[in-house]
C-alpha cells in the first residue's frame, strides 16, 4: 500500500514510549511521540533498577499508548499495524510492551510486528532524513556502542563495538568519580569546556589494534588514578584539575571514536555516516565526527536528540519497514532479553 500508519511501543530500558508514525510515498512522518522517562525513580540508586523499571513500564504503557493515539488524533481502528520492541533489554520492561501490543493486536486484528531495539536506532536516519541504503551508523549511548553497516530494513552488519563499557556509561562513571551530577555526559561536557585537554595524559584504548573495536573501562580507571594523584596531599580536587580531567577524558573518547570511524568509513565507503544515542549529543564528539566526514566527502547525519535517544517513533518506523519486507509476527512473538542484530 502507498500509505501505512503504525503504532510503536518501546519499554526496553528506562523510558516508556508510544508513537504513531505514517509512511506516505516513501517518507515517514511522526504523528505523535510520547516518552515517559524514569530518571527520577532510579536517581537514588545510581543506576536503573530492573524491578522498579518493570513496574513503572507496566503501570504506564497503556497510558502512553492512549496519549500517542490522542495526540495523533487517530482511533486504533485507523492504524495498519502495531510494532513493539521485543528485545534486547530488561526483560520485565520488554514483557510489558509485548503484552500490551499483543493485547491490542488480539482485540483489533491488526498485524503485530516485533522489532529489535537496535534496529529501531539503526533505521532512524531513514525516518528523519529519508536516506538510502547502504549507510554506516555509530550507535553511542549509555547502553550501546557499535558500528553498524545498514544494507536494508533487516540487513545489519556489526563491524565492531565496545568490548566493555558503553561510552555514555564511561561519562556517567567519570562524573561519579569527580563528584559531578548525573547523567554524566552533560556535566562532564560543561566542565570540559573550561578545561585544558592536553595537561593530563590519558590512554587511547585499543587505538593500536586493527579493526573497529573500542574499550572505555580502562579510560575510566585512568581518570580515577589521575584524580587520586591530583588529590594527593589535598583535601579534595581543585576546580581547575577537575575541568582539565574532564577535558582530557572527553578528548580521549573523541579521539578513539573518530579514529575508529575513519577506519570504518575507509573500509566501507558509503554515502552517509549517521550517529545516534545520547553520547551523539556531545558537542566535541559531534564536531569532530562532522569534520571527519567533511574530509572524506561523506554526508554526516545526526538526527535530532529526541530521536537519537530511546523513543517509540523509531520502533513504529522500523516496524513499518520490516512489515513491508517480511510481513507480521504471530501471537507466539516472545520478549527477548538478548537479541544480537
Ligand atoms: O541514548 P541514551 O539517552 O540512553 C541509553 O543509553 O539508552 O543515552 C544516555 C547516555 C548517558 O550515559 C549520558 O551520560 C550520555 O548519554 N550523554 C552524553 C551527553 N548527553 C548525554 N554523553 C556525552 N556528552 C553529552 N553531552
Ligand atoms: Zn536505546
UniProtKB/TrEMBL annotation:
GO BP annotations listed: tRNA threonylcarbamoyladenosine modification
Location relative to the cell: Cytoplasm
EC class (word): transferase
Source taxon at top rank: Bacteria
EC number: 2.3.1.234
Domain Gcp-like intervals: 29-317
Keyword presence, Repressor: no
Swiss-Prot/TrEMBL catalytic activity: L-threonylcarbamoyladenylate + adenosine(37) in tRNA = N(6)-L-threonylcarbamoyladenosine(37) in tRNA + AMP + H(+)
Pfam families: TsaD
Keyword Methyltransferase (UniProt): no
Record: residues binding Fe cation: 117, 121, 310
One example GO MF annotation: iron ion binding
Predominant place of localization: cytoplasm
Family matches, as HAMAP family: TsaD
Protein name as annotated: tRNA N6-adenosine threonylcarbamoyltransferase
Organism this protein belongs to: Gemmobacter lanyuensis
Amino acid at each position: 500500500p502507498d500509505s501505512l500508519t503504525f503504532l510503536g511501543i518501546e519499554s526496553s530500558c528506562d523510558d516508556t514510549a508510544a508513537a504513531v508514525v505514517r509512511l506516505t510515498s516513501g517518507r515517514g512522518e511522526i504523528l505523535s511521540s510520547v516518552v515517559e522517562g524514569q530518571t527520577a525513580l532510579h536517581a537514588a540508586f545510581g543506576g536503573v533498577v530492573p524491578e522498579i523499571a518493570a513496574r513503572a513500564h507496566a503501570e504506564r504503557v497503556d497510558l502512553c499508548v492512549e496519549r500517542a493515539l490522542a495526540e495523533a488524533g487517530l482511533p486504533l481502528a485507523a492504524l495498519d499495524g502495531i510494532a513493539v520492541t521485543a528485545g534486547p533489554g530488561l526483560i520485565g520492561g520488554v514483557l510489558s510492551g509485548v503484552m500490551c501490543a499483543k493485547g491490542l493486536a488480539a482485540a483489533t486484528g491488526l498485524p503485530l510486528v516485533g522489532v529489535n531495539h537496535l534496529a529501531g536506532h539503526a533505521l532512524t536516519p531513514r525516518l528523519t532524513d529519508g536516506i538510502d541504503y547502504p549507510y554506516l551508523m555509530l550507535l553511542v549511548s549509555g547502553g550501546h556502542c557499535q558500528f553498524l553497516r545498514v544494507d536494508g530494513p533487516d540487513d545489519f552488519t556489526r563491524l565492531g563495538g565496545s568490548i566493555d563499557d558503553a561510552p555514555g556509561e564511561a561519562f556517567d562513571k567519570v562524573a561519579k568519580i569527580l563528584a559531578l551530577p548525573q547523567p554524566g555526559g552533560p556535566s562532564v561536557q560543561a566542565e570540559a569546556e573550561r578545561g585544558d585537554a592536553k595537561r593530563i595524559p590519558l590512554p587511547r584504548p585499543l587505538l593500536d589494534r586493527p579493526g573497529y573495536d573500542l574499550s572505555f573501562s580502562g579510560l575510566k580507571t585512568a581518570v580515577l588514578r589521575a584524580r587520586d594523584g591530583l588529590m594527593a596531599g589535598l583535601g579534595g580536587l581543585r576546580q581547575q584539575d577537575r575541568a582539565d580531567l574532564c577535558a582530557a577524558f572527553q578528548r580521549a573518547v573523541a579521539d578513539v571514536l573518530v579514529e575508529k570511524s575513519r577506519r570504518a568509513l575507509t573500509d566501507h565507503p558509503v554515502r552517509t555516516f549517521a550517529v545516534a544515542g545520547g553520547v551523539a549529543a556531545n558537542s566535541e564528539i559531534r564536531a569532530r565526527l562532522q569534520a571527519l566526514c567533511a574530509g572524506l566527502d561523506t554526508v554526516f547525519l545526526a538526527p535530532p536528540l529526541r530521536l537519537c535517544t530511546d523513543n517509540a517513533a523509531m520502533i513504529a518506523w522500523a516496524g513499518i519497514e520490516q512489515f513491508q519486507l517480511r510481513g507480521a509476527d504471530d501471537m507466539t512473538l516472545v520478549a527477548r532479553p538478548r537479541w544480537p542484530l
